[in-house]
Amino acid sequence: MRDLVRPAALALALSLSLAGCGADVAPGGGEGDGAPAAGGHYPVTVENCGEKKTYDKAPQRVVTNDVGITEIMFSLGLEDHMAGYVMPDDKGDLTSVPWKDGYGKTKWLSKEQINKELVLDAGADLVFAGWNYGFSEGEGFTPAALGRVGVDSYLLSESCRNGQGKARGVMAPLDALYTDLRNLGRIFDVEDRAGALIASFRKQVAEAQAKAPKGADRPRVFLYDDGQDKPLTSGAYAGPHDIITKAGGDHIMKDLKDSWTTVGWETVVARDPEVIVINNYGDTTAERKRAFLKSYAPLANVSAVKNDRIVVLDYVDLVESPRNPAAISSLAAELRKLRS
């Protein structure tokens, strides 16, 4: 990956006031286990992409990269702990989400690529980004490079590398979202807020699943991000996998043990998706992507193209973000129409 119904329960969860909880943390995504820490909430230890990290206090000047990561912070009400965010201005409507006020309270540091100089100029004490969501060896911008200049890092769990080269993904996509919300709740001492948000999201997803197509009624779905020679798509560890499957679809690239990756068009044709979901972002509009899919000769007999069953979701719906549950609800409604 380069670098729509929202329930009242979500807004209610976001308004919950912080209760001082004083609980220590268990490594990596445990459900509230761990013993109380001596002397209050801190120090706390979390596990992030396989590495245990201890915090003696909450970071005060966080720089985030990209829209989904930024909105994770906003959804937890952590604007006061942020020095600013970095992201292009092609990431859709930022005014209709429950945490939209975060954008007005937090500085937009750059619409260009995040880099070490920008982070240092912002006085950051922590960068929340991910592999291919800002961090890149090719650009020389890595957690190790930041550590050498005294800046800590937290990696987006969707982007964790799994030990197979640079392939990414170590857990189901929604589990990655819940893990980051839970970890950040502990790091910033807002565990009650994180727990309420996760509970609200789980409820929203369960409600969508209850109405979604099941069994043989599940339509085959392909996620199209971009690319003409080879399509960029989602494997089992990127957000679209859980969005598609929990909305009642059969994700045709579920066997790819990676997050965002390319495949051949011949594979898409052979698996004959009944629905194509377009990822809407960037210089190539959703309408141009749709036009390409409908005009590309090898796809002419693919069911989704032949029957014009093409759905558009925004980038921030599909990458790890607090908009994922609403995207499941939205896609589930579209798939129900297909089977009605």
Write the layout of secondary structure elements.
Elements: H1 8-14, E1 44-48, E2 51-55, E3 62-65, H2 67-75, E4 82-86, H3 101-105, E5 108-110, H4 116-121, E6 126-131, E7 134-135, H5 143-148, E8 152-155, H6 173-187, H7 191-211, E9 220-224, E10 232-234, H8 239-246, E11 250-251, E12 260-262, H9 265-271, E13 275-280, H10 286-295, H11 303-306, E14 310-314, H12 315-318, H13 324-339
Description:
Strands 3, 4, 5, 6, 7 and 8 form a six-stranded parallel sheet that branches. A four-stranded parallel sheet has the order 11-9-13-14, with helices on both faces. The chain is an alpha/beta fold. Helices cover 35% and strands 17% of the residues. It has helices at residues 8-14, 67-75, 101-105, 116-121, 143-148, 173-187, 191-211, 239-246, 265-271, 286-295, 303-306, 315-318, 324-339, and strands at 44-48, 51-55, 62-65, 82-86, 108-110, 126-131, 134-135, 152-155, 220-224, 232-234, 250-251, 260-262, 275-280, 310-314. The chain starts with 7 loop residues before the first helix and ends with a helix. It has two domains: 11-157 and 168-203, Rossmann fold (3-Layer(aba) Sandwich), CATH 3.40.50.1980; 214-339, 3-Layer(aba) Sandwich (Rossmann fold), CATH 3.40.50.1980. Belongs to the bacterial solute-binding protein 8 family. This is ABC transporter substrate-binding protein. Keywords: Signal. Residues 61-340 form the Fe/B12 periplasmic-binding domain.
